[in-house]
Design brief:
Helices cover 40% and strands 18% of the residues. The protein is of the alpha/beta class. The protein has two domains: 158 residues, ATPase, nucleotide binding domain (Nucleotidyltransferase, domain 5, 2-Layer Sandwich); 167 residues, ATPase, nucleotide binding domain (Nucleotidyltransferase, domain 5), CATH 3.30.420. The two termini are 34 Å apart.
């Protein structure tokens, strides 16, 4: 058996996890509330918070896994992409920790880790209370539509990787053979959702707020333009512009327009973006004749994206793979599973490898 410590620090969440082979034993996350007052992540503040959080988070993950640090066989860490200051904290700690134990290190691509989160296996034993939890707030449990306990996707399958910084349609031939079928040519889907929330002055982070308000609104109340992009690529800058100009014109007529129609606006912009995303995913799945479709990344927590993916898969009798909420956002468990598959291949990193931002 292989016991792996994993560390994630690419943005504003400090996380550590312990896996025994592909089974998750602990997953601790420390979130940073300091960014809320700025309406977005401030890189300098994020890196300073990582410095404060990294030791207690790693210590908590090891204790909750019920292991001694001497039992760790390797240390996996997010090398990139991400914020340079944040990555430096996690990478430096992982290297130092591994060297002190005389153990190898494994560098992990953050985006690949999101996709591979579908291969994490739950512990057969009840995990401690901190598993999958933030140090500041409890994690949410989630049913897995279209997925039985312990069921993983089989190759080939398609995955929509969608977050605040990335939007890609991937065709997976193996754990690390991920063919990019399409991607955004400008903004990411999550960034477009957050921008819509900012325009309406809803607060930060905007995605969960829009998702919550959309449940109370009419998704067909308003319509926003979507670009005609060839193939499987996306563009979200035009959707943002359409939304901005629509509100600009309505606010001239009624200064209280946003407040009066907040729920409908949230539901409509969410529908526009989700439908745009899944239309190309469905097209790709039909083209490549796959019968399994997954989503991953922060936006995969969006309730409409989850339900619409399930609806499309039910229509075609495909199998949908929808991650638990605790694996949608940045976490070390996904870094650990990616590290485990690299460990099996003997792909260890040199101590001199620097982090990368893109």
């Amino acid at each position: 058996m292989t016991t792996l410590l994993a560390i994630e620090s690419s943005c504003d969440d400090t996380s550590a996890a312990v896996l025994r082979d592909d089974v998750l034993l602990s997953n601790v996350i420390a979130s940073q509330k300091v960014h809320e007052q700025y309406g977005g992540v401030v890189p300098e503040l994020a890196s300073r918070a990582h410095e404060q959080n990294i030791i207690p988070v790693v210590d908590g993950a090891i204790r909750e896994a019920g292991i001694r640090k001497e039992e760790i066989d390797a240390v996996a860490f997010t090398r990139g992409p991400g914020l340079m200051g944040s990555l430096m904290v996690g990478v430096s700690f992982a290297k130092s920790f591994a060297q002190a134990l005389g153990k190898p290190i494994i560098e992990v691509n953050h985006l690949q880790a999101h996709v591979l989160s579908h291969f994490i296996q739950a512990s057969p034993q009840p995990l401690s209370q901190g598993e999958g939890q933030s140090l500041q707030q409890p994690a949410q449990a989630s049913p897995l539509p279209g997925r039985g306990a312990g069921v993983r996707p089989t190759f080939p399958f398609i995955c929509l990787l969608v977050s605040g910084g990335h939007t890609q349609i991937l065709l997976l031939h193996s754990h690390f053979d991920m063919e990019i079928l399409g991607q955004t040519i400008d903004d990411a889907a999550g960034e477009a959702i957050d921008k819509a929330a900012k325009i309406m002055d809803l607060g930060y982070p905007g995605g969960p707020i829009i998702d919550r308000l959309a449940k109370e609104g009419n998704a067909d109340a308003f319509h926003f333009a979507t670009p005609q992009i060839a193939g499987y690529d996306y563009s979200f800058s035009g959707i943002k512009t359409s939304f901005l100009y629509f509100l600009r014109d309505r606010l001239k007529e009624d200064p209280d327009f946003i407040e009066k129609h907040k729920a409908d606006l949230c539901a409509s912009i969410q529908k526009t973006i989700v439908d745009f995303l899944l239309k190309k995913v469905e097209k790709a799945a039909l083209k490549y004749n796959v019968r399994q479709v997954a989503i991953a990344g922060g936006v995969s927590a969006n309730s409409r994206l989850r339900s619409e993916l399930q609806r499309i898969c039910d229509k075609h009798r495909w199998q949908a793979f929808i991650p638990p909420f605790k694996f949608c956002t940045d976490n070390a468990a996904m870094v650990g599973i990616a590290g485990y598959f690299k460990y099996l291949k003997g792909e260890f990193a040199d101590i001199s490898l620097p982090p990368y931002t893109r």
